[in-house]
Write a structure and sequence with these properties.
Elements: H1 16-41, H2 44-49, E1 57-61, E2 67-71, E3 78-82, E4 92-96, H3 98-105, H4 111-116, E5 120-124, H5 126-137, H6 143-149, H7 152-170
Parallel strand pairs: 1-4
Antiparallel strand pairs: 1-2, 2-3, 4-5
């Protein structure tokens, strides 16, 4: 069962810009740590991207108050949270629900199926997106579990809770 999602960000609510900037500031230390670890543990990921290492990707989890800017250049690696109104010009944009995006990173979800069911929106340089997807498919293990492990038991608990809540929300409302 597919739930319909609004892919276009809604008009910001009063105070939303401040909240988005605060959320970015809180998320940034985690994102920096995660991307450094990925670069150390999976250097072949960058080689697989070829000429798209310098592509700016905007990854937009629609229900979060910010988007993610990724430039997978091992010499100038960027992975940062950005308010949508201050997002850089991106060569490729990937938009969908946060947990869907996380499952795509871990190859737990079929990107083609998500795209054709309109749960995932891709625009810009589709070759770059395909290269990124193929590079992530080659990563051994789970990127999400790697990231959660960096924070020990609390990180693992948060990831488990996110996965449980997402699985429950995909089942739809309980029958009466």
């Amino acid at each position: 069962m597919s739930t319909e999602i609004r892919m276009t960000p809604q008009a910001p609510l009063p105070g939303a810009a401040v909240a988005a900037r605060l959320a970015c500031a809180m998320a940034q230390p985690v994102l920096s740590r995660v991307v450094r670890r990925m670069a150390l543990r999976h250097p072949s990921l960058f080689a697989r991207l070829g000429p798209h290492q310098g592509t700016d990707f905007l990854i937009d989890p629609v229900e979060l108050p910010f988007a993610l800017h990724l430039r997978p250049d091992p010499q100038a690696l960027i992975f940062r949270a950005v308010p949508r109104d201050a997002a850089p010009q991106a060569g490729a944009v990937i938009r969908g629900r946060f947990m869907l995006l996380l499952e795509l990173v871990d190859s737990e979800e079929d990107g083609d199926a998500a795209f054709f069911s309109r749960d995932l929106e891709v625009s810009g340089d589709t070759e770059a997106v395909v290269r990124l997807r193929n590079a992530l498919d080659d990563v051994e293990g789970s990127v999400a579990e790697d990231a959660a492990e960096m924070f020990g038991a609390p990180g693992r608990a948060i990831l488990a809770r996110l996965r449980r809540s997402y699985a429950t929300s995909q089942k739809g409302p309980a029958p009466r």
